[in-house]
UniProtKB/TrEMBL annotation:
Superkingdom per UniProt: Bacteria
SUPFAM superfamilies: MetI-like (SSF161098)
Segments for region (Disordered): 1-23
Keywords tagged on the record: Cell membrane, Membrane, Phosphate transport, Transmembrane, Transmembrane helix, Transport
Name assigned to this protein: Phosphate transport system permease protein PstA
């Protein structure tokens, strides 16, 4: 046998993988299509004489999706075009969701900063009419913090213990009944909670309007949210942790206290803050039970109070430029308070969460 035949490499008869050398769109193609789509939407809006920017955005979104599909079909084929059109729809939905939020935040900040200063935060509306310039929001901040704080003190322990019962102990008809009523309470309108406290606490027992009455209505709205969020977080705790603790002879109540709750504390804190954020902006129960005041009242158990949502409602209803500016500034303060509470909850959750070894 010749040396040439001996040195020839063996022939590979195995099936070869498909070639990936087909044409592909460059990385900058989606951005370019998006820019062209925005230009097309603006051009169509100007030619049609549309005043609403929403119509311009919808045209741009349609052009972006259609353009992505056509260009990808020509360059990469129909199969890849279907994948890219799904990605384009996801991006369009994301933009449609984020634009109203960004617009709301921008409007609140720009209009709220007109009168938001140290004087506005440290003075009340005492001695001023709602249509006069000046005044502040201090009395409403005090009312909101006290009412939300009292509602949280009432709702969180009850909601937390209810969730622990449903996850760790609940069996049979009682657990099903509790779950059913929690689901029903989740959908209760805020005005119904306010009317319930009004008919019992104020009219039946004759306790009068106060910040505490509003707190009880807010606690009713807060409890089902705390129960549902805490229940879901407790269900995520692995059963192996419970079994390991019980196998060491630790009582069940101590296992829940020392193992289950610390493991889920991050999610529980987030759920509590979601509930706090919901009740902080409620106006109907406060309007019915707290009644509103232009003066500072540091005692939530006696006499009427104000709150930030009620203050915004009252000032915007006046309609004068000074009152509307105060309403936007109070709305900005309300958003800032909710944001600070969320940051505080995240800090506590990180501090109390189990440390990885």
């Amino acid at each position: 046998m010749s040396n040439a035949l001996m040195n020839r490499p063996p022939v590979d008869d195995r099936p070869q993988p498909p070639s990936f050398s087909k044409r592909r769109l460059p990385r900058w193609a989606p951005a370019a299509i998006a820019l062209v789509s925005v230009a097309a939407g603006c051009g169509a809006g100007l030619l049609a004489g549309w005043q609403s920017r929403v119509q311009w955005g919808l045209i741009a979104a349609l052009v972006f999706v259609a353009g992505t599909y056509l260009v990808t079909t020509v360059v990469e084929g129909k199969r890849q075009a279907k994948d890219r059109i799904a990605t384009s729809l996801v991006w369009v939905c994301f933009v449609l969701a984020i634009v109203p939020l960004a617009s709301l935040a921008w409007t609140t900040v720009t209009r709220g900063l007109r009168v938001l200063d140290g004087y506005f935060l440290s003075h009340s509306m005492a001695g001023l009419q709602n249509d006069e310039p000046g005044g502040g929001v201090y009395h409403a901040i005090i009312g909101t913090l006290e009412q939300v704080g009292l509602a949280t003190l009432m709702a969180v322990p009850i909601g937390l213990l209810t969730a622990v019962y449903l996850v760790e102990y609940g069996r049979g008809r009682l657990a099903k009944a509790v779950t059913f009523f929690v689901d029903v309470m989740t959908g209760i309108p805020s005005i119904v909670a306010g009317l319930f406290i009004l008919s019992t606490w104020v009219l039946t027992f004759g306790m009068g309007f106060s910040g505490f009455a509003g707190s009880m209505a807010l606690a009713i709205l807060m409890m089902p949210v705390v129960v549902r969020s805490t229940e879901e977080m407790l269900k995520l705790v692995p059963d192996e942790l419970r079994e390991a603790s019980l196998a060491l002879g630790v009582p069940k109540w101590r296992t829940i206290l020392k193992v289950v709750l610390p493991t889920a504390v991050g999610g529980i804190a987030t759920g509590v803050m979601l509930a706090v954020a919901r009740i902080t902006g409620e106006t109907a129960p406060v309007l019915l039970l707290v009644s509103g005041s232009m003066f500072i009242n540091n005692d939530p158990f006696n006499d009427v109070q104000s709150s930030l949502p009620l203050y915004v409602f009252e000032q915007y209803a006046v309609g004068t430029p000074a009152a509307v500016d105060r309403a936007w500034a109070a709305a900005l303060v309300l958003i800032a308070i909710v944001m600070l509470l969320n940051l505080l909850a995240r800090g506590i959750a990180r501090w109390k969460a189990p440390k990885a070894r």
